[in-house]
Design a protein that fits this description.
With 314 residues, this protein is an alpha/beta fold. It has a domain of 191 residues: 3-Layer(aba) Sandwich (Rossmann fold), CATH 3.40.50. Helix content is 39%, strand content 23%. It is built from eleven helices and twelve strands. The strands form two sheets. The chain has a nine-stranded mixed beta sheet with strand order 7-10-5-4-1-2-3-11-12, with helices on both faces. Strands 6-9-8 form a three-stranded antiparallel beta sheet, with helices on one face. The longest helix has 16 residues. The two termini are 25 Å apart. The C terminus is likely disordered.
Length: 314
Amino acid sequence: MPSTGHYPIERREGEIERLRMQAAAIEFDASVMLDRIGVGPGWRCLDLGCGPGGIVELLSVRAGPTGHVIALDADPVFLEQARVLARDRGLGNVEFVQGDAYCTGLARGSFELVHARFVASIVGRPKDLIGEAVTLTCPGGIVALQDPDISTLKCYPPHAAWDRLTQVLEQVFACVGNDVRLAQGLYQLVRRAGLEDVQYRPFLVGFRSGDRMADFLPATVESVRRTILHHGLIDEAELNAALAACRRHVADPDTVSTYVTVAQVWGRRPRASTTPNTTFHRTARSRCSLVASQMSVRETAYGGDAQANQTPTP
């Protein structure tokens, strides 16, 4: 959970498993992106909105013992899960920070890579997020985003229950001001932030009935159930019926499904000392000025007691 956006997904029982299942399904493509960027030994990397793991391990392995990775999230339970994972995998170059992805309080211009996956779309305010990411990146460093386009979330053969749940899922994010088709305009947003050599790599993966991700749509709808019902997008009886029918359909050995298209977009901050786009920069700075006194809780992967550190906003 990245904090100051509008995040409708609940930390219900099974949510951490759902997020890790999703991360595993798209890990290969995240690796391709990082390799194309050229993340390597000694890099200082930041994963904004890392959740219970994000791409922390992929970054840690590439940065190596001379590099440093900060994993930031607002949810202390997610951070603890990520910390345990890092400890179990022996990732000694990772630091965990509880904080706001839109106003981190971290040192400006201090990272070779700032990454965020499903934050600009799922939490909202993409310009603010990109503005914060740009200010955190050193001159010549990379800002990388991954965001979805829900229009490819399909099952074959089609089914009415699947279609209804997909419709409700898109509507619930729209109700809180978020855009699960952000991938369609992500490239343009990143270019307008003033980044150079902007790259665009969309990918799509699919699942069979026996794959764990076959349950992705029903599981995700379950995670936004309260917000769906609060906004009256569907009544509870119809929702329960649609979930049951959808799960029966995806369990059929003849059924396959496709995931959201994920657009990977990354660009380089100009090497000149000036911030590329003053509009994005001012937005990020003004937002941070409201919370300059907030405390960040930091833990190393093997650290003892957590320490609260106040980082002044420049």
